[in-house]
Amino acid sequence: MSKLDYHTMKLTLSIFYTLLMVTLIACGSDGDLVEDDIMDNANVLSDLQVTVNIEGKDANNPHGDGSGIVDISASAINATTYQFVHNGQIFAVPAGSKTFTFETSGTHTYSITVIAIGEENTTIEETVTFDVLFEYTPSADLITMLTGDSSKEWRIKFEKSGHLGSGHADEQTPNLWSAKAYEKEDLGAYDDRFSFNVDGTFTHTTNGNIHGKSGPMSLDLGGDQGLTPNSNAEFENYPHNNYSESWTLSMVDGEETLAFSNVGFHGYYVGGDHLYTIIFRSHSELSISTIGSDGLKWFGILTTDEVPDKTDLPPNSIYSSLVWSDEFDVDGAPDPLNWGYDLGDHGWGNNELQNYTNNLENASVEDGVLTITARKNGNGYTSARLKSQGLRSFKYGRIEVRAKLPSSQGTWPAIWMLGSNFTDVGWPNCGEMDIMEQTGWEKNQVLGTFHWQDPASDSYRHAGQNTIASTSTTEFHLYSLEWTPEVIYVLYDNESYVTFPNNSNLPFNADFFIILNIAIGGNLGGEVDPVFTQDMMEIDYVRVYQ
Q: Which of 127, 296, 347, 362 is the most exposed place for a label (fewest CB within 10 A)?
């Protein structure tokens, strides 16, 4: 090789290495970005796959086996968790798999949106739509309850508060309006009778007229019939002949549902789809709700009980109209429309020992009875104090409570009332009326007592008496208050044993609310039996007549 060739090659290699170094130096930062991009791509959320498996689906059963069971599975690259959304409800599904059971009779189309969630809350989603069959067979006891296995006649339970009512569509109770006993009397609904026949026919005996909302009645039943709606937009005594339709039972979103054909309805016409969700049922009572044409939920209570004789006054009473009652005929927690709770363990001004709770173990309804249970709990005690404050209050009338009392030493049960202005003026200015109290040491008698602040002397006053009640802890007895502007009586089994003169200077001329409770120990409870574990007060009903 000549020196010229050698130098030429050396110069060429030198230029190549120089250019290579310049390129590497110039691209060093870009080289790092390329590596970062590769790392970022490794964490990118992608490739969401959703699998729908309908239980029992095959060529002969394209919508499943009728169980309504559907398994949804999801997977996505770099997903950290998942959410499934159905009917606006969001389910957190970390494992990406969830089983749904769709309980609406027949074949229906459902959609579920699956959301995969990655780092820094990045998301991707996919919506799947599918058809599912749910087959429902009504239980034999439900058929028997409605029809008596032949034909059974029902009516609106108009003597019970809440026999009609309305609420928002998503409410479970009539939060907008709840009818008082006899509130819609003589308007065309209370004399209606409904016969459910085991062959699936339904006969509505209207006795010539019906009652309901004027809008849907005009639209569905034949105009206004020359009537003018009342102030509640209702038609009173709307002409309508007896008719027969069919009835069926189905399951809608897991709830037993009663359906009437055409314009069949339960006695207060509100239009809508004539589907009635069964809220509660027993052999003699049926609580139902439906969505009316106005989009509100309308409630009703039917019964097979004999029609009460309204002219029969409670014994020894001047009050004839049942304006409110709680018969405790729905199992579970006490009705939140009627009862709230006092809570806590601060002695309640009487050196009491219990902690008041709102737990079912301390207050529950079963088989038509409210049970308030006081319990030993470690080194202390729990119990319940139910109150109608802010929910139900009354001025004058007859208050009746049928109850059986606890027998254990140290228990202090009470059925009593406080003035509704209690939170504003305090005790004793609000006034207190004790319909029944029983001390912890004397279980063969009960007390009736009044407490108030004397306006003349501005001092605390009280007055009352006791009466023999030898079977109060083993049998149910009636505890009553007969309350007028002139005089107030406390009664045990309809026998008055306290007579208290009332006048306009006393606080007993305003709204009062009802309280039901068991205290432990304290001023009237006394020493608690050292082996005490639990005891209860059972209440059959609370009724108010005016």
A: 127
Element (H, E) at 322: strand 322-326
Place of tokens 């008719």: 243
CB 327 within 8 A of CB 395: no
In the sheet with 106-117, reading across from the earlier edge strand, the strands are: 89-92, 81-86, 106-117, 123-134
Half-sphere exposure (CA, 13 Å, Cβ side) for 503?
A: 4
What is each CA distance from 217 to 202, 204, 211, 543, in whole angstroms?
20, 16, 9, 34
The answer to whether 534 touches 374, Cβ cutoff 8 Å, is yes
Q: What's the first-to-final CA gap in the chain, in angstroms?
A: 129
- For 186-237, what is each residue's pLDDT tens digit? 999 999 999 999 999 999 999 999 999 999 999 999 999 999 999 999 999 9
CA distance 59 to 8: 81
R_g of the chain computed on alpha carbons: 35
Cβ neighbourhood burial of 308 (10 Å; 0-12, 13-18, 19+): middle
Residue type, 354: Q
| Backbone φ, ψ for residue 167 (5° rounding) | -160, 175
DSSP H helices in 27-84: 28-42
To the nearest 10°, the Cα dihedral for 512, 516, 522, 524? 80
* Position 309 confidence tier, pLDDT thresholds 50, 70, 90: confident
Q: Which listed residue (432, 442, 486, 527) is catalytic?
A: 432
Residue 313 CB-half CA count within 13 A: 11
Q: Which of 126, 437, 482, 495 is catalytic?
A: 437
What is the reported pLDDT for 41? 64
Could you give the CA distance from residue 293 to residue 279 in angstroms, rounded to a whole number? 20
d(CA 290, CA 112): 27
- E strand or H helix that includes residue 412: strand 411-419
Give the pairing type, strands 363-366 and 369-377.
antiparallel
Beta bridge partners of 43: none
User: Closest Cα partner for 438 from 462, 417, 411?
Assistant: 411
The predicted pLDDT at position 311 comes to 58
Tell me the pTM: 0.55
Q: For residue 464, what is the enclosing H or E element?
A: strand 459-468
Write down the number of H helices and E strands in the chain: 5, 37
Active site residue 120: no
So what's the pLDDT on residue 523?
93
